[in-house]
Design brief:
- By secondary structure, the chain is mainly α.
- It has a domain of about 150 residues: Tetracycline Repressor, domain 2 (Orthogonal Bundle), CATH 1.10.357.
- The chain is about 70% helix and about 0% strand.
- Helix 1 packs across helix 4 and helix 9 runs antiparallel to helix 10.
């Protein structure tokens, strides 16, 4: 007897394919027919799980929220015993390395022009999901003496927004010198806020990763803005 399809797996397939299309084409430029064609499913089968393209997009963002929360919690469990400063330094370093890998194959100019909805959603994820974890780490640092700030929540929110958006070469394209200036500004701002976690070596390592990215796309004028 033929095995019935797993409804949850079907939903995951719809979300995975739709995410890829939204990133490549942009939300507005992606039609339900595009999703139908990419999945090889009937429109009725998709509507059995989702009411509309908007419903699919909301589910994509919800999945990113859940993924971010799970990743952060797992990371927190694995870093028990480190000081607040050590945890936050390691987290920022891992964030930059992971970003360079994930974004290397995206076309920055297309992403910026076509994905305003995703950019806003990413910012919301950073503040609503990532920032509370960062605030918890900063509070640990205050308790163990590695940080000295009266604004742990605000520092966490600003860090989340600036590190994951303003200092992202895909979301806000710029040339290498300007990107380094952004990093140096973030370093100075963090130091003055009493959360001194961005050192010169971290900046140098990140810029080395970005230099590799820029070399692969040296003909791209949008990266030189």
């Amino acid at each position: 007897m033929a095995r019935k399809n797993n409804p949850q797996q079907t939903k995951e397939n719809i979300l995975s394919v739709s995410t890829k299309l939204f990133l490549e084409k942009g939300y507005d430029q992606t039609s339900m027919q595009d999703i139908v064609a990419a999945l090889g499913m009937s429109k009725g089968a998709i509507f059995h799980h989702f009411k509309s393209k908007e419903d699919i997009f909301d589910a994509v963002i919800d999945r990113q929220y859940d993924y971010a929360e799970q990743e952060m919690q797992q990371w927190m469990d694995e870093t028990v015993g480190l000081s607040g400063k050590e945890k936050l330094e390691l987290l920022i370093e891992l964030n930059f390395k992971d970003r360079s890998i994930q974004m290397d194959n995206l076309v920055a100019s297309q992403f910026q022009k076509k994905n305003a909805r995703f950019i806003v959603a990413i910012m919301q994820i950073n503040v609503n999901k990532s920032a509370p974890f960062l605030a918890k780490i900063i509070r640990e640092g205050i308790e163990d003496g590695s940080f000295a700030t009266e604004f742990p929540d605000e520092c966490a929110e600003v860090f989340s927004l600036l590190i994951n958006t303003w200092c992202d070469h895909v979301l806000f394209a710029c040339d290498l010198p300007r990107l380094r200036r952004r990093m140096e500004f973030l370093q100075e701002m963090a130091r003055r806020m009493g959360v001194d976690v961005i050192n010169d070596q971290l900046i140098d390592d990140y810029m080395e990763l970005m230099a590799t990215f820029y070399e692969k796309h040296e003909d791209r004028e949008d990266l030189k803005k």
